[in-house]
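dude i think i finally got it to work??
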Amino acid sequence: MPTTTLNPGSLTFIDAKTASPLPPDGLLPREKFNDLLHVAEPVSLLLIHAPAGYGKTTTIAERMSALNTQSAWYRLEASDNDPSRFAGYLARTLSRATDGTGSSTLNRLRQEGFSDLEAFFTDLLAELPIEAEPLYLVLDDYHLINNTEIHQSLRFLLRHMPAYLTLVIITRTVPPLGVAQLRMKGQMAEITSRELAFDADEAQQYLEGRLPFEVSREHIERAVRRVEGWISALQLLSASAVTSIEFSDFVDQLDEGNQHIFDYFGELVGQALTEQQRTFLLRTSILERFNAGMVMRVMDDTDGQALLGSLLAMGLFITPVDNSALWFRYHHLFSVYLRHLLSCTTRENRRALHQRAADAWLELDHAEEAARHAIAAEDPERITRVLTLHGRKFFTEGQFNLLQRCLDTLSQNVIAEDPTLTLLRAWVAQGQYKFDEVENWLSAAEARLRAVMSEESQRAVHGEFSAIRAQVAMNYGDSDRALVLAREAVEQEAQYLPTSRVAAASVVGEALFVRGELQEALARMQDTEHMARAHQAHQNVIWALCQQSEISVAMGLLQKAYNIQERAFQYAEENQLNHLPILEFLFRIRSQIMWEWHHLESAERCALQGIEILEAQGERWYVQSYTTLAKVAQARGRQSLCADYIAKVQKMLAASDYHLDWVANAHATMLTYWDAVRDQDAIQRWLTIAPASNPAEATNHFYQCNGRNRARALMSLGQFNEALPILKELTRVADDLGLKTDLNRNHIALAYLFWQMEERDQALDHMKQALELASTTGAVGSFLRLGKVLIVMLKALINDGAIDGMELQRAERLIQLAQQQRDFSRAIRISLDEAIIQDIIDRPDVPELIRTSPLTRREWQILSLIHAGLSNDQIAEHLKVASTTVKTHIRSLYQKQNISHRSEAIELAKDLLSKIQGE
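look at this
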């Protein structure tokens, strides 16, 4: 063996290979990684491993630069597998970073050489000082190294290097450096794709710095979910989208594939795959997750573990599902790419692959995965087997979409001959608002079963069928029929669907709630919860708790409603239900309370979580979440964003049928927006198609809301006399039935109406009552919906000394919040109160002319309407006076304030009104 095998001789060094990369302009700082670079007890190895495009190098380089960390950087390539070249560059990078440390070893390498890399590292370590400032030796792109001698030499380095030195490995794969032992001993820190991926906050910050248009948080979170925070995909998105519509379309299309991303993956994989590895990727692409056993079943191959290991070593987009590192999955976009390749080949029998997967999952008792693969295989036999074993479980967990997909593959005759399948089919149709289909399925089954069943069995079937007919009757608004059917079903023991009696009990509570019998409804829903818990019917437990929460809200007990929701969240967590669609209902009602309490960030977060839960169900189910997001956007003064959500809600309402509860809530938000932007044409059009309203029968929150919507529309159009009787009757019914939250909102609406009608005393009396009720309800959002006029009314109450104690504190807080709000309209568009006018005049920063030549009350009104952008004719129409009268007042106003142009009047009004609006 020669005495010198490491002798690079006159090797020419490329300086860029041993220079720390310069972070690009505008790079997002990742301060969350600071702790890994500034620790009391540095680790021996900092391992950063993730597939391409996760910003491994730029992230570490930017943090080291920001923290002024001393580092020695070596950027590797395939040619660095030569031990002499590797040793030379390593010594050089240390020498450059430490003002010469390592230069002696480098000189010896050039002049004499070393017997092997271990000898080289022995000299290098001897040359390093025992103590020094922390130093990071960075080996970038280490996945390009496959030389065993280099791996062994770095193991030697890790065992013997001084404490101040940390080896940083940046790679696409886990290197063979004894990582497992270092991890177990706590001598290693690790950054993976999970940590490197952008979360929604980081993505928002990143995209806002690059996009020339406003993008909603909902769009950003959807993008992050689709690309799983992969930075390269977000970069492509920011470069490709020119408008918010293009942004949304780009994100939606990712599930179908993107040619640029496909090209990227194609170059990444290239020719590196063996035929066996390529087959592995194609066949397993149908799986949402897999382990070695699952791979062998789907591959029909006994070498699954070795194949999986070989692909993991390539640094492809395969990530562990959990900390066990036994189950894996493909990155979503990589999976889309692989499935695209699978669809382009005729060599693979995709139906057979899905059949094998369905059988494997069923053996593992993972029913949902088994069902999805049986559906993909279009295999009625396997679907029937899955439904027979697990159909009831799907139903109790609220997996209606999955149930529907299963049942859609079965013939009507097969379903009609089986009471359980019929019940599942009918409940799914009910859950999809296809109420006519429900009766068709039930009637077909009854006709078929009548000939083959005993009378006793028919009675049992009839009882369970009555439960679902009761729910349909509720959805049609026929609470009397619903109660009769539900009570009939509760008396009958369930034989085919164990939760039928639970569902019937729930309908009893819901019917009582709709009729305004709140206390009895609450008691029935509590009974339903206990029944559901006994059957472990998770869907029904959550539903019953949500209904209890809604009843408590109707009673004005919002804190109690919040506490009930907390119980529901706890139940979901204890039973690992966070993926179930019913959780959207829970997040939705939580978001409504958060909005009412003006906790806008929490309201938005709940709405976004609801959308995430329902993403697989389809956009038509987002209408309630979009409504909340529109309310939040308006409360924050983000007009364009609010307009986008309003447009989406309108589109959804036009395309589908929804329960009046959803419709009324959405209409309330739409009307508030239109009123704010003064779109009276939209309000007028709405009135022509609005749902019918009978205030005398508004015995629940959605009838109340629907009636209030009509009154609001009439108020916006100046039809005060038509709005007044509606609100009075709504208020009477709400007071009689104890609908405290609606009573609160009705008094707010009446206060606004009387203020518009210039009946000051009645307006302030209703506002006072609303404040008193708010001491129980905690209402904030309903007040702030009035906009800047709320400030004027509350200040009038305070100046009159009409409120004190808690009501005074609440009024002062509401004024503060209203002043912080950005109004879509440019000014207060109602009559100013004398007390408020005096409040403005008394301010030291008000122009002297206002004091020496005071305006009349009518001139103040006209000044505010000029500021609002109304023409003379519009002002005349608003004040119900002649245009000549308006011109007379304007001429007097101009003379008093030495004004000659309308623009000057607008500026004066802007300055004066800002004194009360807080702008």
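The beta strands are 45-49, 71-75, 135-140, 165-171, 188-191, 318-320, 328-330.
im so relieved honestly
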